[in-house]
UniProtKB/TrEMBL annotation:
Organism annotation: Mycolicibacterium hassiacum (strain DSM 44199 / CIP 105218 / JCM 12690 / 3849) (Mycobacterium hassiacum)
Domain of life: Bacteria
Residue runs in coiled coils: none
SUPFAM superfamilies the record matches: Ferredoxin reductase-like, C-terminal NADP-linked domain, Globin-like, Riboflavin synthase domain-like
Cofactor(s) the record lists: FAD; heme b
Cross-referenced CDD domains: Mb-like_oxidoreductase, O2ase_reductase_like
Lineage of source species: Bacteria, Bacillati, Actinomycetota, Actinomycetes, Mycobacteriales
This protein's name: nitric oxide dioxygenase
Length: 387
């Protein structure tokens, strides 16, 4: 039976699903794995709570797809995971020890129900998942990551930094894609960042980073990054894009959510004819609109681009004077006051546009909901995956 045995697969899925209380099982799996392969422990950060949750969710999703007899998406997701995991230093040996630790944990956890059918289904499902990941990782010939040196760190406002690096070798990505980044202050903790310039043959790359209050990594990137720091950068992901034949474009950027949209705009400047692009760039205070001058320069040269600055408050706080003046010369649209979701939908539902939203998860959700409530078709709206 094996992968045909939907009943056994369902039992396995329920056992590993965090929503059904799988924490103990997943905890035991990692303990067993690290006991039989100590080198696997070094792949992970000290606190494993997020890792356990993500692993449980991914495994439950995979087994659920097998129950529903859907193979296409699991294969591509697992292949991508396998390619990605190379950057953590996962080797073929780790896959062997993972497979055997996972199988024996499932067996001992489900001992009262274990039988030949469960054994066969568990064996086949785990072998399939691990096989896809290791096969894809093995087939990938390019480097697992790029290292680069910070050459410039600009504090552009109280909580946003622009950080420029020189990579040891160029990294190719499509405009609008994101990467994962590991900084020396936090080894083995990777965070997503979106390059704010198109891929550069000479290996230059730039990121805009906002310190999230209470966050682990972003405040230390903003406070502690120094020229000379060595960063590690993964291969790119994501599909945010402008369809050049898809009509006019609406872009909505909150704070450093500007980065991928700016990259797309910069890429468009290299083409002779473009759709019209209207960008709303929002922040809390006027001084948070840290990149208005660059946007003003681009709009001044490229009549297809128009930019509306938006801030929740109309005046700057006292600390704004400690940071660069961001006001561009006259010529941009007049700054609007309000939250992005409200300001953008004041102009209608933009349903004739391709709409790209980028920013923190709350901002993306609120803006998308406001557009949908106005009648914008969901398929016109793009954004990066939400947590
Ligand atoms: C596809 C993608 C691209 C991204 N690109 C960029 C980028 O170019 N520049 C950039 O500054 N950030 C970007 N981020 C966000 C970034 O990856 C981190 O999530 C963010 O910096 C917080 O990390 P942290 O370790 O400081 O916080 P954590 O310790 O991971 O989280 C602390 C708390 O903050 C919340 N949180 C997480 N992210 C955000 C956020 N963005 N805004 C508000 N609250 C948040 C978490 O839910 C948690 O409650 C991107 C995220 C994704 C998914």
């Amino acid at each position: 039976m094996g992968l045909e045995d939907r009943e056994s697969l369902r039992i396995l899925r329920d056992a590993v699903d965090p929503a059904r209380g799988s924490d103990e099982l997943i905890r035991r799996f990692y303990t067993r794995w690290f006991a039989i392969d100590m080198s696997a422990r070094d792949l992970f950060p000290p606190d494993m709570a997020d890792q356990r949750m993500n692993f449980g969710k991914a495994l439950a999703w995979f087994l659920g797809e097998l129950v529903d007899r859907r193979a296409h998406e699991p294969v591509s997701v697992l292949a991508q995971l396998g390619r990605d995991h190379r950057k953590y230093g996962v080797t073929q040996r780790h896959y062997d020890s993972l497979q055997s630790a996972l199988l024996s944990t499932l067996r001992s956890h489900l001992i009262t129900r274990w039988n030949d059918r469960l054994e066969e289904a568990a064996h086949d499902a785990v072998a399939l998942a691990v096989g896809i990941m290791r096969g894809a990782a093995d087939a990938e010939k390019g480097p697992a990551y790029r290292d680069g040196t910070v050459i410039e760190h600009l504090r552009v406002t109280r909580d946003v930094s622009v950080i420029r690096l020189q990579l040891d070798a160029p990294l190719y990505y499509h405009p609008g894609q994101y990467v994962m980044v590991q900084v020396p202050q936090w080894p083995r903790r990777w965070r997503y960042l979106s390059p704010s310039i198109p891929a550069d043959r000479g290996g230059a790359i730039e990121f805009h980073v906002r310190a999230v209050p209470g966050g682990m990594i972003s405040p230390s990137i903003v406070a502690e990054t120094r020229p000379g720091d060595r960063w590690r950068i993964s291969s790119p992901h994501g599909g945010l894009h402008v369809d050049r034949d898809g009509g006019d474009v609406l872009m909505i950027a909150g704070s450093t959510g500007l980065a991928p949209l700016r990259t797309l705009i910069m890429d468009l400047t290299r083409k002779a004819v473009n759709p019209r692009v209207h960008l709303f760039f929002g922040g809390r205070f006027p001084c948070d609109l840290y990149d208005l001058r660059t946007l003003w320069h681009i709009a001044a040269q490229n009549p297809w681009l128009s930019v509306t600055p938006v801030s929740e408050y109309s005046v700057d706080p006292p600390w704004a004077k400690d940071y660069p003046d961001v006001q561009p010369p006259r010529g941009l649209h007049v700054r609007q006051t309000g939250v992005l979701a409200d300001v953008v939908t004041r102009y209608g539902n933009w349903s004739d546009r391709q709409i790209l939203i980028s920013g923190n998860p709350d901002m993306i959700r609120a803006t998308k909901e406001a557009l949908l409530a106005k009648g914008t078709p969901a398929e016109r709206i793009q954004h990066d995956p939400l947590p």
